[in-house]
Amino acid sequence: MRVLMVSHACAEPINRGKLKALTRRPSLEISLLVPRLWKEGARTLVTDPGDGEGFPLYAGAVLFPGRVTGHVYRSGLMQAIKSVRPDIIHLEEEPWSLAAAQLLVLLPWYRPRPKLVLFSFENMDLELPFFRRRIERKSIAVAEEIIAGGETVRDRLLLRGASPGRITVIPQFGLDADLFHPPGEGGRSEEFTVGFIGRHVHEKGIDVLIRALVDLKGNWKAILVGDGPRRAEMEALARSLNLSGRIEFPGWVDHFEIPGLLRKMNVLVLPTRSVERWKEQFGHVLIEAMSSGVVPVGSTSGEIPNVIGKEGFVFPENDSLSLANILAELQENPELRRRISISARERARTEFGWEVIAERTHAVYERAFAAKSAGAGRAAP
Which candidate in 30, 92, 237, 342 could, as Cys together with 7 as Cys, close a disulfide (CB 3.0–4.6 Å)? Predict the structure, then answer.
């Protein structure tokens, strides 16, 4: 079975763990197409084609690099389809994206037509422009299978008319449980340590966490990792609350430094607040924390409660008092932290490891391929 994945997110090499795991399935021939140049915030990612990671890697020129749903391929897409001759195209772009529209135009020209596996990460029922709604309706109608990045994404797809039997919930990205692991015996400080890792922006709710820390007693500290337009404001808030000596702001760190930082923490807090056009779509740092034996605590925003499950604590958005009570309970009860640490680590390993996600993705491919063998296509409206 030949599969071509098209994904701007995989222009970032650390996001390719799923493909590396999929290459270990002998029945699959996996290839990847990414933008040759992609802008990720202040960073510019440049990809050279090749096969040094165990699978053919194609890189195409795109118009509007950095626009997640607004980019199209100027070159590379048709060439990749001709070279791979895929049975399945796995599009990791939103169903209403211009990349999806481009693919819908191309697919009918190929015989036999590759089957389409869609991926969606949007979990808000946004009011899309008319032409975007048309793209989405057609994408959903044509796709043999749809992968939702979370339960809240699945709910949105159902509202948009997708058939429940064609939707499978699988996180887009997993983790390496051998990289994200707890420290050895006695590896964590006796000092109760609360952490945050993410962008310093309004929607991440860092101010809620800082205000919750005011009520903690005894021996504790906090490490608020990341950078962004509100970092200076958060540092000023900590000073105004006389917490600057207890809270560290190490700034932006490389992804490969995160495992070591997590091993210093007892608790990882994701205090996200929903805003008009966004709520938390997954919260990948939560599963990294769980795999590291860190207790996850998060707000009720978006997918956070589903990611944490029973292996942590959830508090209402913007409720610093509720968060303060949770942190106080965890500070005072090391045995509770120990129990959650063990169960969280096990769940991260068995539900979010790259191999697990690859296996579930492989099953989606097999269903799409079976529909192809049976001639069970779907006509677009």
Answer: 92
Instruction: Please answer whether residues 122 and 132 qualify as being in contact, where contact means their C-beta atoms are separated by less than 8 angstroms.
Output: no
- Span 260-316, pLDDT tens digits: 999 999 999 999 999 999 999 999 999 999 999 999 999 999 999 999 999 999 999
Whether residue 8 contacts residue 372, with contact meaning beta carbons closer than 8 Å, is answered with no
Which of these, 261, 262, 253, lies nearest to 200 by C-alpha position?
A: 253
CB 25 within 8 A of CB 55: no
Tokens encoding 109: 């020209």
Q: Rounded distance, CA 91 to CA 130, Å?
A: 22
Judge whether 223 and 251 are in contact, CB under 8 Å: no
Amino acid at 149: G
Structure letter (DSSP) for residue 136: H
- For residues 159 and 137, the answer to whether their CB atoms sit within 8 Å is no
169 class by beta-carbon count within 10 Å (0-12 exposed, 13-18 middle, 19+ buried): middle
* pTM score of the predicted model: 0.92
Q: 């090749």: which residue's tokens?
A: 50
DSSP state of 195: E
* Cα 326-316-288 angle, rounded to 5 deg: 65
User: How many Cα atoms are found within 13 Å in the side-chain-facing hemisphere of 91?
Assistant: 32
Cβ neighbors of 195 (< 8 A, separation 6 or more) are 222, 223, 224, 225, 261, 262, 264, 265, 267, 268, 269, 289, 294
Task: Determine the distance from the C-alpha atom of residue 189 to the mean position of all C-alpha atoms in its chain, rounded to a whole number.
Answer: 30
**19, 5 in Cβ contact below 8 A?**
yes
What is the rounded CA–CA span in Å between residue 371 and residue 58?
27
